[in-house]
Automatic annotation (TrEMBL):
Residues 38-83 form the HTH cro/C1-type domain. SMART domains: HTH_XRE. Gene3D superfamilies: lambda repressor-like DNA-binding domains. InterPro entries: Cro/C1-type_HTH, DUF5753, Lambda_DNA-bd_dom_sf. It comes from Streptomyces noursei. It comes from the Bacteria. This is HTH cro/C1-type domain-containing protein. One of its GO terms (molecular function) is DNA binding. It holds the Pfam family HTH_3.
Length: 272
């Protein structure tokens, strides 16, 4: 039987939430509540997620969103608001804090649908990422190189034996503000069989921020949206569907992949 990973609830709010969930589940298991053993798998079935998702919550690796927190409260018979209020506090945290759930789930995603006013992070080059971070004052300028290195490390997912699929709609504005290296990177990934880039031309609409829908191997889905110094990750079904519709609307108005490649080449010529 695998050893249970010890979690220090004082390490952070994510770990505290995980400890609350685990203690409540273990208490029910000891009491054999409703005649069940209350394993992670059983709790997962009760709240309609995977066993892995419950494990992530209990270890504090990926805290629940408000929807899942509410379901856990009800199923584990915890006081109303005991988890959802804590999750609400997490959602009001800093940019690096609010991105934690998304970044952890990003590594496990099988497919991405993205609509963004900048080049998506998973396709960014170091020089482009550095300019965005400096412009957004993302932490101490002296630490920017470290942030960029972390940013680039997340792109290791493209080197997996079975890399994810990505369909990205990028606002044409991003092409006019990209570095030469970034434009060449877009042309290179456009040739990859698992990545499709479409450009939303001027006059076809405005993409405010970044909107991403993630699909996981088990069919579960999540949605992430980010603006200037704010963002949110959710696996609530209604939220995911809303952002899928946002993506679909932009994709329908965007140029084809072939026409988008031509538009990127035009941007390259302007930059020379």
């Amino acid at each position: 039987m695998p050893r249970v990973r010890e979690v220090d609830p004082g390490e952070g709010l994510e770990q505290y939430i995980g400890n609350v969930v685990r203690d409540a589940r273990v208490d029910k298991a000891r009491a054999k509540a409703e005649g069940h053993e209350w394993s992670q798998s059983y709790l997962a079935r009760r709240v309609f997620v995977s066993q892995t998702r419950i494990s992530e919550v209990e270890t504090g690796d990926v805290p629940p969103d408000r929807d899942l927190a509410g379901k856990l409260e009800s199923t584990l018979e915890l006081p109303t608001g005991s988890l959802t209020n804590l999750v609400r506090i997490l959602e009001q945290a800093t940019v690096r804090d609010y991105a934690k759930p998304y970044l952890s789930r990003q590594e496990k995603a099988h497919m991405f649908h993205v609509a963004s006013f900048v080049v998506p992070g998973l396709l960014q080059t170091p020089d482009y990422a550095r300019e965005l971070m400096l412009a957004g004052q993302a932490g101490d300028p002296r630490d920017i190189d470290s942030y960029v290195d972390q940013h680039m490390a997340r792109q290791k997912i493209w080197g997996r034996e079975d890399p994810p699929w990505m369909s990205a709609v990028i606002d044409e504005t991003a092409l006019h503000r990209s570095t030469m290296a970034q434009l060449e990177r877009l042309l290179a990934v456009q040739e990859m069989p698992n990545i499709t880039i479409q450009v939303l031309p001027f006059g076809a609409g405005y993409i405010m921020g970044t909107h991403m829908v993630l699909t996981f191997p088990d069919g579960a889905r999540g949605a992430y949206t980010e603006g200037f110094s704010t963002g949110n990750y959710s696996e609530d079904v209604d939220t995911v569907l809303r952002f899928q519709k946002v993506y679909d609307r932009f994709a329908a108005s965007a140029l084809t992949a072939e026409a988008s490649t031509d538009r990127i080449n035009e941007a390259v010529k302007r930059s020379k």
